[in-house]
Amino acid sequence: GPFRTPTIVGTRPAGGVAGAWAMMQFLGSEGYQRVAAELMAAVDRYRAGVNAIEGLQVLGDPALAVVAFSAEGFDVFEVASEMQSLGWQPGLLQRPKAVHRMMSMLHAKSMQEYLRDLETVTARVRSGIAGPSSLRASY
Predict the structure, then answer these.
(1) Distance CA 115, CA 55 (A)
(2) Alpha-helical segments (H) within 1-139
């Protein structure tokens, strides 16, 4: 059917473009490259941390700052549900069933705490202590 939006910019408001322009003006090319390098180093540490947790594995070899992981032998949504109960907001994927994070420098600051909680929660799920999850990926 027809697709209509109530604004002249459709589904892509210009706020993101304006924000990106302002950040580039503030950081400059060298500043942007520095932040990007720091972020990708954090993503590498995050990927290694997830892969070090028994039963979890990062999916693929992500070249950007979106990282997904799945579980082997147990329901990764149970892990997501337990993480949510600790205050983390998991992103869910349907096929394959996985949890994802769109990493930013904000995630880098809390990474050790996140990975520590993820390891604890995963151990609980693997041992059967955690109950079944009611989470569903829908989009």
Answers:
(1) 14
(2) 15-51, 76-85, 105-109, 111-127
- The pTM for the full model equals 0.80
96 prior amide bond cis, ω within 30: yes
Q: What is the C-alpha separation between 134 and 127, in angstroms, rounded?
A: 19
For the stretch 118-134, what's the b/e string if a residue is b when 16 or more beta carbons lie within 10 angstroms of its beta carbon?
A: bbebbeebbeeebeebe
Question: What is the torsional sign of CA 84, 106, 116, 56?
Answer: positive
The predicted-structure confidence for 74-107, as pLDDT tens digits, reads as follows 999 999 999 999 999 989 998 899 999 999 998 8
Other beta carbons within 10 Å of 102: 10
